[in-house]
């Protein structure tokens, strides 16, 4: 039996288990255009496409590495997909280096000390996330495939001399993610850590004899260790308390001690946040570098010359940059940076400059460079905003609304970013879109959002972006509040937000839509089923409709990772929980218009999750809009596909939220 017939059989079997409804199934109007399949989606008016065009032609640039000659590698899009570019001066020309129909990702430049001039990048096919690693030689402009062409490969890591290259791969059995190491000149690779689970390479020792590795279990549990490169013997480090989360993990310049990010207890005292620590195994001394900052450290970088360390803290969704002089950890004065979100830190080969990606609520991502000696700040890229007036962009405010439970005798509050249209006439009540992030261990951040800008400036719609319980960035207790049997509590946080909207005189509680992708898609469906009389319409992108079928059909390498968060469906009590809370089994309560969008090649949330909720909701008489891209995966990375989805979404809001 072919895969297509198996999936059809599964879908039909599931349909037979759904309750019978009084309504007749909604009619389906299906149109296939190239790789796009549309069902019940009206033709998109040219006027709407034209209004959207400038917003859809905004773009950003992200720092990806330094080259030997002092140029920057950046990732940006000038056509359909993001590709690798090189920029050799502040505000200089972007020279495009890769030209693929699929986006490139995971760009990693060869280290400065290596006898190499180039970078590694990853590329998949149609969003299937089976990334293959390639080497791009800047001297010859030749590209060499490094991996097997079939397995999932990521996490490229060079040794300091460039002779060895490590990465994570599912090549051994398709289920476990092992650490592989390659002799880079010859291309000969072998599995180094193959002990089951999900492993990653973190750092090569300066002398090239050892490597730091980590086994990831969940957002709250990782296990760090060290492997001998000659024997493959792994030594896991003891973790105080038995279980803790670990982030970045690297050798100090001395090659003995380590820097790492963790929420592991210190001296028996547990903490809420991921802090930056330095541990010296010879003396046993542990120094917590960010202990005075009650927020998570997102990541850090160490300069090749060993003189500086830079790290970023996430403070209520706002990024703060810190630089310390090594080995004494003295603070380094920095220029004032725009308020926003940072990523992609990287020291120049000589250690004198620090590059970073900066994104703000009113400007797309761009690359900046700090001169550490002079405190100078230079902008190296200026990404386009579609010819729009950036001064008209709306910056969100941070609000906190009370929810159903208490902390220390007071109502727990949920943070949310509020995009409010400007120049609203007095007495106007604004329709609202609630945008729910995925993960669930993700975090909504005040980044540039062209969709939010279009909604605010063109349609007069407010957007609220909450970080419901289970979101990262607010401590490990908050992160765990939605696990397994507590899953519905995050949906109750959306109910509390609906209450808050009802209390705001400028917001229209009768015109509220919900929007979200992946786990956020589940939240859309669950919210629509739980509060059918309070939600006007919903958009579900690559969302989970039944946790049981999701866990059965997600890719093998993801299954145990997701069980750690959602629960193990093999346990009867968890299976019963999934039957009770999954939107598929409550589709009869989804009575508002629904738009479902999906990528056919999604390895995380299989497209069958979308098709079964579409069929179940239509059985209830609802004319669901359904959009499927055969050349996409977990989200839409090709510009033409993303543009069409956004246009269809705006039309959906116009018809079903605004009533136009």
UniProtKB/TrEMBL annotation:
Q: Which residues form the signal peptide?
A: 1-22
Q: One Pfam family name from the record?
A: Peptidase_S9
For this UniProt entry, the molecular function terms from Gene Ontology, in alphabetical order, are: hydrolase activity
Residue ranges of every copy of the Peptidase S9 prolyl oligopeptidase catalytic domain listed in the record: 447-657
| Record PROSITE patterns | PROKAR_LIPOPROTEIN
- Keywords associated with the record: Hydrolase, Protease, Serine protease, Signal
Highest taxon in the source lineage: Bacteria
Does the record's keyword annotation contain Zinc? no
PANTHER family per UniProt: DIPEPTIDYL PEPTIDASE FAMILY MEMBER 6, SERINE PEPTIDASE S9 FAMILY MEMBER
Q: What is this protein called?
A: Alpha/beta fold hydrolase
At the highest ranks, the source species' classification is:
Bacteria, Pseudomonadati, Pseudomonadota, Gammaproteobacteria, Lysobacterales
């Amino acid at each position: 039996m072919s895969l297509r017939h198996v999936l059809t059989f599964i879908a039909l079997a599931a349909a037979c288990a759904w309750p019978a409804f009084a309504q007749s199934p909604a009619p389906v109007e299906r149109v296939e255009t190239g790789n796009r399949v549309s069902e019940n989606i009206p033709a998109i008016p040219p006027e709407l496409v034209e209004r959207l065009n400038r917003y859809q032609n905004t773009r950003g640039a992200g720092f990806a590495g330094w080259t030997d000659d002092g140029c920057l590698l950046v990732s940006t899009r000038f056509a359909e997909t993001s590709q690798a570019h090189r920029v050799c001066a502040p505000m200089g020309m972007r020279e495009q280096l890769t030209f693929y129909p699929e986006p490139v990702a995971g760009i990693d430049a060869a280290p400065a000390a290596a006898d190499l001039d180039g970078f590694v990048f990853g590329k998949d096919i149609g969003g299937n996330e089976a990334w293959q690693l390639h080497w791009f030689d800047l001297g010859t402009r030749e590209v060499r495939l490094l991996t097997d062409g079939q397995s999932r490969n990521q996490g490229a890591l060079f040794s300091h001399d460039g002779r060895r290259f490590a990465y994570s791969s599912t090549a051994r059995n398709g289920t476990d993610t092992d650490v592989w190491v390659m002799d880079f000149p010859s291309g000969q690779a072998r599995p180094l850590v193959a002990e089951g689970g999900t492993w990653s390479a973190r750092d090569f020792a300066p002398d090239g004899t050892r490597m730091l590795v980590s086994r990831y279990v969940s957002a709250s549990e990782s296990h760090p260790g060290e492997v001998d490169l000659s024997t493959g013997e792994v030594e896991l480090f003891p973790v105080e308390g038995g279980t803790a989360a670990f982030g970045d993990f690297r050798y100090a310049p001395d090659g003995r001690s380590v820097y790492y990010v963790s929420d592991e207890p210190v001296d028996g005292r547990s903490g809420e946040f991921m802090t930056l620590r330095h541990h010296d195994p010879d003396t046993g001394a542990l120094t917590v570098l960010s202990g005075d900052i009650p927020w998570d450290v997102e990541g850090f970088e160490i300069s090749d010359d060993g003189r500086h360390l830079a790290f970023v803290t996430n403070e209520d969704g706002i990024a703060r940059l810190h630089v310390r002089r090594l080995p004494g950890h003295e603070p380094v004065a920095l220029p004032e940076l725009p308020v926003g979100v940072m990523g992609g830190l990287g020291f120049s080969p000589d250690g004198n400059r620090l590059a970073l990606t900066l994104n703000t609520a009113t400007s797309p991502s761009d690359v900046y460079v700090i001169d550490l000696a002079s405190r100078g700040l230079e902008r190296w890229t200026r990404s386009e905003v579609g010819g729009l007036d950036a001064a008209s962009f709306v910056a969100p405010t941070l609000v906190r609304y009370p929810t159903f439970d208490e902390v220390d005798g007071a109502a727990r509050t949920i943070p949310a970013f509020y995009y409010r249209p400007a120049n609203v006439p007095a007495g106007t009540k604004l329709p609202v879109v609630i945008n729910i992030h995925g993960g669930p261990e993700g975090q909504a951040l005040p980044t540039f959002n062209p969709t939010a800008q279009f909604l605010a400036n063109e349609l007069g719609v407010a957007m609220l972006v909450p970080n419901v319980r289970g979101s990262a960035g607010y401590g490990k207790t908050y992160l765990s509040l939605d696990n397994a049997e507590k899953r519905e509590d995050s949906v109750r946080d959306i109910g509390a937000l609906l209450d808050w909207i009802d209390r705001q005189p400028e917001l229209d509680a009768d015109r509220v839509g919900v929007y979200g992708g992946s786990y956020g898609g589940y939240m859309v469906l669950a919210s629509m089923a739980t509060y059918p009389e309070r939600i006007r319409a919903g958009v579900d992108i690559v969302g989970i409709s039944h946790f049981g079928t999701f866990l059965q059909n997600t890719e093998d390498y993801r299954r145990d990772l997701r069980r750690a968060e959602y629960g193990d469906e093999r346990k009867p009590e968890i299976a019963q929980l999934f039957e009770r809370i999954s939107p598929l089994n409550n589709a009869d309560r989804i009575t508002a218009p629904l738009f479902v969008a999906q990528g056919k090649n999604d390895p995380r949330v299989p497209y069958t999750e979308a098709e079964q909720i579409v069929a179940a909701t239509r059985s209830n008489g609802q004319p669901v809009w359904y959009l499927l891209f055969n050349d996409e995966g977990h989200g839409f990375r090709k510009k033409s596909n993303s543009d069409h989805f956004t246009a269809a979404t705006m039309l959906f809001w116009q018809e079903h939220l605004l009533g136009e």
